[in-house]
Amino acid sequence: MNKQTARQMVHSAMLAPSSHNSQPWRFRLQDDSIELLADRSRALPVTDPDDRELHISCGCALMNMRLAAAKAKVGIEVQLLPDPDNPDLLARVQQCPLLEEQPDLAQLADQIPHRHTVRTDYEPGFDQGELIADLRHWAKLEGVQLAVVSSEAQRQRIANLVAQGDRTLWADTAWRRELASWMMPPNRGEGLAVSALWSPLVRAMIRWFNLGAMMARKSNQLVEKAPLLLVLSSCGDGPRQWLETGQALQSVLLGCCQRGYQGSFLNQPIQVASLRTRLSKITGLASPQILLRLGRPVEKAEASPRRPLSGMLDPV
Ligand SMILES: Cc1cc2nc3c(=O)[nH]c(=O)nc-3n(C[C@H](O)[C@H](O)[C@H](O)COP(=O)(O)O)c2cc1C
């Protein structure tokens, strides 16, 4: 794999979404492969005690590498968790002869810089027809089930769960401390960006005040008004399925982006174990992994910061 292609693949990977924008990945460039490793120094032990979201984030990064390879017309083979003795080695992307070009993947690759998490309002309505079928197709290719929340009763029950998730998480001082520690000025290149001027104040507010009731009200409205609500669910609940979920998530988000839609996450009921069981019952899904709100943003989406690529490369 030539150096320029390898760097383009890693550059695409680092534009992937990650919980708290923690960017919990490292890359090792070999002659004919790229290894994706978990950077557990960037884990979120309170929010994500099993590193479930860490693996999903890395799965998103892996999908971006696959798409960048398709765009560069480079054949690759992907092995998930190739070394049973090294659980940090999440995937090896090995160059191989190109069997056929994949223009649909190359088109998704074009969306990578344009996809952002948009937490503000969306225009009402969603042209669900063909897009849903496409999204289901992208998820299924990775072995992941995509369920659309279609009934009002189901939506209302999920809104209640999300609100309850907010109240539970915000009541936990360790969770608030962890969230506060990821509120950073944009020049840090990581974390949830708040202006340098405000970041000390925002961090202190989050650390000291339980804003659960306010957040719950806001989340409730977001769910009620969401033009489209989706759940991604895996068959099994371990590192392999989390990596698959991440790959599905990223292709779904990019597929939406292609049509002018963006997404934001409402994962609170998945992060709280007892609520996850209830979400599973409401939706009939075995292992819900991601709850997404999708729509056409009212305002222009902004890019969140990233660390420099040099800091993510491992010495060989
Ligand atoms: C597995 C995962 C879980 C996430 N959970 C949340 C969440 O609960 N709430 C939220 O607002 N954003 C969530 N995000 C979005 C990240 O905060 C976002 O990806 C990150 O800040 C980078 O911004 P970008 O997606 O615009 O590039 C999640 C992202 C991933 C990949």
Q: What ligands are attached or bound here?
A: flavin mononucleotide
- Percent strand: 15-25%
Question: What's the assembly state of these chains?
Answer: single chain
Query: What general outline do the C-alpha atoms trace?
Result: globular
Radius of gyration over all CA atoms, rounded: 19 Å
H/E series: HEEHEEHHEHHEEHHEHEHHE
Tally the beta strands. 10
3D structure, described in words:
By secondary structure, the chain is of the alpha+beta class. It folds into 2 domains: 3-115 and 303-312, NADH Oxidase, CATH 3.40.109.10; 129-171 and 210-295, NADH Oxidase (3-Layer(aba) Sandwich). The chain contains 11 helices and 10 strands. It has helices at residues 3-13, 52-71, 103-110, 129-141, 152-170, 173-181, 199-208, 212-225, 239-258, 268-271, 273-283, and strands at residues 25-29, 33-38, 76-80, 89-95, 145-148, 183-184, 192-193, 228-234, 262-265, 287-295. The strands form 3 sheets. It has a 4-stranded antiparallel beta sheet, with helices on one face. Strands 5-8-10-9 form a 4-stranded antiparallel beta sheet, sandwiched between helices. The chain has a two-stranded parallel sheet with strand order 6-7. A hairpin with a 3-residue loop joins β1 (25-29) and β2. The longest helix has 20 residues, at 52-71. It is globular and about 55 Å long. It starts with a helix and ends in a 21-residue tail after the last strand. The structure holds flavin mononucleotide.
